[in-house]
Structure formats: C-alpha cells, structure tokens
User: Fold Receptor-like serine/threonine-protein kinase from Stephania japonica.
Amino acid sequence: MILHLLLCLLLPLLPNSSAQTFRNITLGSALSTLDENPYWVSPSGEFAFGFYSIKGELFLLSIWFAKIPLKTIVWTANRDRPVEGGSKVELTSDGVLSLTNHTGGEIWRAESSNATNAASAAVLDTGNLVLRSSDLAILWASFDEPTDTILPGQTLDRGSKLFSSISDEDHSSGKFQLSVQADGNLVLQSIARPTEGTYDPYWESNTEDTQSRLVFNESGLMYLITPLNGTRFDIATEIPVSTRDFYQRATIDFDGVFRKYNYPKSSTNRNDQSWSVTWYVPGDICTVLTGNVGSGACGFNSYCVLGQDERPNCECPPGYDYVDGNNRFKGCKQTFAPQSCEKDQLRKAFEMRELVNTDWPLSDYEHFLNVDAEWCSNTCLDDCFCAVSIIRGSECWLKKIPLSNGRRDPSINGKALIKVGNSSFPTNNTSFPPNVLPTPDLHCNEKRERQHKLILPGSIIIGTSLFLNLLLLVIFLSTKHKNHKSNRVTSSSVEGNLQCFTYKELEEATNGFKEELGKGAYSVVYKGVLRRNAQGLIAVKRLTNIPEEVDKELKNEMRAIGQSNHKNLVKLLGFCDEGTHRLLVYELMIHGSLAKFLFEMPRPSWYKRIQIAIGIARGLTYLHEECCTQIIHCDVKPHNILLDESFTARISDFGLAKLLKTDQTRTTTAVRGTRGYVAPEWFKGKAITSKVDVYSFGIVLMEIIFCRRNAAIEVGREDPEILSEDVYDAYVQGKLQLLLGDDEEAKNDRRLERMVMVAIWCVQDDSSLRPSMRKVLQMLEGAADVPTPPDPFYLNSTV
Assistant:
C-alpha cells in the first residue's frame, strides 16, 4: 500500500509516464454553460468534454474533436434532453458526475456500478471520458455507453448498440441502430420509433459467436473477434492509415449508413478540410433498406436517390412537398385537396405525372397483367384510393397512401405515374372541401364581362394551337414511318435512351474506320469522336461477316445494355442498323482492357487490383439479381472488362448474353464463351445458370490476384500451365506467396488468403457449390465469412 501511494505521488512528476495521458478532474470540479470555456480537454488537446452549443440557446453535454475546425461530436450524455443556459455539470463529492439544468433538476448522471466511489475523472487522449477510483481503476467510461460513434481503441461488446441521430443538426436519437446481437451477428436495423423495437436487418456480418465483439483498434483496423471460433472477421475493407497521422471515427449516420472517416492531422488549420469517407456499409441504402412495414431510407411519400457522392437524397414526387423543409428525411405530404370518389370529379380534379425508374415496392393494393401504360394510368385516375400507378412492361400496380420504401434507380426499369391535383380545376386552389363551390360575391358581374371579352380571341388562339399540334403530329408520324422502313431496328424495339445513328455519321466519327482498338470473331472496334453531342470519344463496334445465328448479337447486346445502367457496366450510347451495316456505339474506356492492364504493363498496385475485382463483382451482381430481366453474361474474361479514366472496372461485350425471364433460372444453349474461362457444365450438356459467370469470375479473380494468365504456355512445355490448379495447390500447402514473386503489397495484406478462398469457391466443378455473385461480393467486401473451400477439381460422381 505504501509503495502504491509513493507511485501515485511520483507518477505525475514523470513527464513520459502513462499518468500524463489524462488530466485529473477532482471532486467538486464543475462546468457551467455560463463559463467562458465550458469544457475540459484531454492532455493533447485533441478532445474536449463539456457543453456544446446547439440551436442557439440549447446545449449538449458532449465529447468532440477539439483541434479541428469541424468540432465533430463523438459522444453525448443528453442527446434527447438538451439543456438551457445556466445548466451545470459537476463531479460531486460522492464521486458522481451529474448534469443539472438551469433550475437544478438532474438530467443525467454517471457513477460507479459497484460500491466504490469515484475519486477523480479524466478526458483521455483516446476520446474516452472516465471515472476513476483512488487506485486509478476505471469505474465508468463513456466508451461503454456509446451514442452514434466509436473511436480507435474502442470496442462494442455483445449487446452494445450505436444509435443514429435524427439529422446532421439534430443529435437526438434517430431511426437506425448498429448492434452486436446475442448470437454474435453484427447488424444494421431500422427502429420503429417512438419505441425501440427493430425491423429486420438490412445489413449483417453473418457471424455466429456468443462472445463476439466489434474492435476498432488503435491501428485503424475494424474487425469482429469471434473467440469461440478462433477467427477474426474484418469489417472495414480499406487499407488502414496510421492514427498518428489521421483522426479516425466510425459513425452510424442519420441516413442509416455505417461509415468510417479519416481527417488528416496535418490539415487541422485548413477551414476547407472535411472528413473523408474511407469505407461504408451498405453500398446502396436506397435499395437494400426495405420491409413490409416502415418508411424505408426516406420518410413516407418520398423516394430515395443515391447521389454522385454515394449518399442518399430524399425527394418528393410531383404534387408533394417536404413535411419538414429542414429535414428531408421526414417524408412528404400532398399539396392538393383530398380526393373525391365520384369518377367525374376525379377526371376533372386530377391528372397523372410521370417519374421514370421510380417505385414504392411495398404499397401495392392491386396488380394487373397484360395492360399498357394508358390503361394503367386511367385506372389509377378513376380510383379514389390510388395515389400512384407503376407500369413495368405489361404489368401495372396500383399503390395507396402512405407510400413507403420509395427509391429511384436505373435497375427499376419502369415508370411511376403520380396522381396530382389539376391546377386548372378550381377546388384545388381553395380551402373548400371537394364538390363544394364557393358562394358568388356581389362583384362578379364585372369579372364575367372581362371573361366574355376574352372568349373570342381565346377561342381563336386555342383553335390555331390545336391545328398546329395536329399538323406537327402528322409530320412526326410520317417521319417515324419512313425511319421504320429504313431502319430494321427502331428505337421502339430497344428499351432505354439509345440514339439511332446513320452509317455515314459513324463513318465520319471514326474517320473512315481508321483507328482500330480491338478485334473479335465477328466484330472490329474503332475509336471515334462524336460531334453531334457532348459524348466526346466513343468506341464503335462494327459487326462483320456474321452468320445468321450470330446476327442476333446486335439485338441481344442492345437489349441487354440498353436496359442496364450501372457504374460497373460499359454504357451503350446507341446503334446503327442500316441496310447491311450493323454497329454499336459505346462510351470509350481510355485505359483499355483489364487484360492489357494485367498482362502487358508493369504490375498494377495491389490496391487497384482489389478495387477492380470488387467492381466486376458488383457489375455481375447487378446483371444477375438487380435487373428486371436476369442477364447471364456468358463470356466474362479480362478482355471484356474495360477500365475508365479512374480505373473503374466496366463489364462489356454482351453479344453472348443470355437473358432470362423473371420466372426462369436455367437455360440450355450451345457452348459459349472463351476457353479457359468456360464453366464445366457447358461441356456436360447441363442446364446453364448464372453460376457460369461465377466460374468465369473466379478465374478472372485469380488472374487479378497473381497478374498471370489462367492458361500460359511456358518455354519447353507442350501443355499450358493452369493457374487455377497452381493456386489451389499453393493454398493447400500454405505457399501462396510463392506465386506472387516480388509483389510485397499483396504478400503483406491479410486479405490475400480470403480473396483466394473466394476464387476457389467460384471455380468449383459442381455449380451448386459455387456461391451467388451477391454472396461473392459480400465475401470480397468483408461483409460475409469465407468458409474453407473444398477441392474444386474433385469430380463428385453425383454431379
């Protein structure tokens, strides 16, 4: 005991001792909102604890980053009960940290969970606020009661939760939570406010271990430790940076996305610096958040759109406005009068407005088949319960208020017809109930006379306008009829906003098809410059010498890409089908193919290769699961993966694509694809599924990892060396690094083995063992565990 007392006396005098990592807040110390600086800081000054001013005269008792211009809050004691001026926080004589308001009423307190009284408090340089006993044992810590953020050095144990805020300005508890559940699964869920009941997870780690805990270590790594399984599941997949050089935090933001942020410490004096997002889940909150109840990512009657910054934006449909202009996530309300159920009134009082690629998927009350857009629109217009009709192909859905889970995304591939008030109908702009007209006033005769004088010129104007409109309509239909004769494939046969080019136009754009970019069995690709619009550089694919069965390639490719819109797919701009000329026009990918990138240039960086692999997986997931019609690419290989200006992977060449209807999962067809990437079932006469693309992706993934071709002939060998076989042998023997040569980046990355295991799962001879592309993507991104793969070349007799 004497030795311990001596140490307590001597440690504060030692400048390099651990005791200097905090400053003691002694019993009786207090802060008031009336103080000039109402906060205590950590020894380094990087964190402050005290009163944070919000909304003018209200305060939160919080911890925030104190050295940067953005005083970002990381913890709050009274997030749902802000206090007014004159409030006070005090470490009382009995060791309780107590927050009282301006009238002396206690709002919040922190105290030891056992009988030991706190002797002091401290704000640590980790951002942790602690209460300590006289022997420096921690009796209470803010790290154990987090709000929406965790910091390096902090863990979330089983049962711990993070709750989002309502908005960037309102730090009250929001409608999303991150929690480590009792079974060890880390999940993101929306909350049924005002209760704390939760809906089904919209993202989860799929881990099972009753002792799991989420760790955000001081090296910037974030992972789940599963002690019972003896494994570590990496959550954040980006390459970590040092906490010596960057401030770091992970926050469940008010929009329901769990994001990891960095802020360079060297830029603390720059007012224009902001937090950089280095990793986040889920990838698209607009589309993944859904359920039978609840509003979705945005509020009721609104729809969610993913912005260019990959953050969700909430928008109102026509005829609606935000419930709260300061918080667009609270939903939208109608701006027109309520509906009457008399059909003649509905036709007069309401009209339909169109929104493309928009849907509220869980507000249906009617579903019709084999109808067109006009029928769908009129049916909603005549139904007083209908707020929106959705037309997709020949199917129609009627939806009622409130609209939920709204989203706008190219993968929806349909349009919404919104019922809104007709501005020309008088009752819409008055405060009178529907079907009740206002009483005429005594001064209306003068108004009638003015209106009568306007009838004759108005009728002439309207009559002339109708005649001109009819004339233009006749000219348009005549021109369209001529174009239909000269072009066998018209814009009506291709879904999507594709342009129809003339052969002469493309001949001029390519300077007479002068600069060749690549060549295939039945096509040559040329570089061109498009002058009639802002598209700029283009790639023109000219199909030549095509047999009759391959002639379908043009329509296949236009249909496949014309209906698709994803950042990991090459964008088809238009086509030409004039006489014997068949050409497709794409945006030009300036960095060429992945094959050139991997095999004909100096070894690309490991980080870029990982991002390319994940990009390809995202593109294939979109084709397989997110298109309205499932698309099997059938020829996934490095030559068909192109790289744009930022080296983003773009899947191209859909000429062999097989499209499946929504009620199909298998098809039979002749062998397609490129040798070395073709799945075994092609040669066995078995039904073809999307798993053939999974197999091809597995081969490509191995090529990306090791920068080697799958089938390469070495000097002195007659048979090619098969990379997939070498990879599995090296994996089993624990010698993967021998295949990497001098690639130190890959050798030292803990993700190497996981990526190889994913690739081995993809190339299983038995297609039923291969995961779906969505599962592949989750495993690559670290959102799902990767079990030990079996021997992919073992031929099961039952297969």
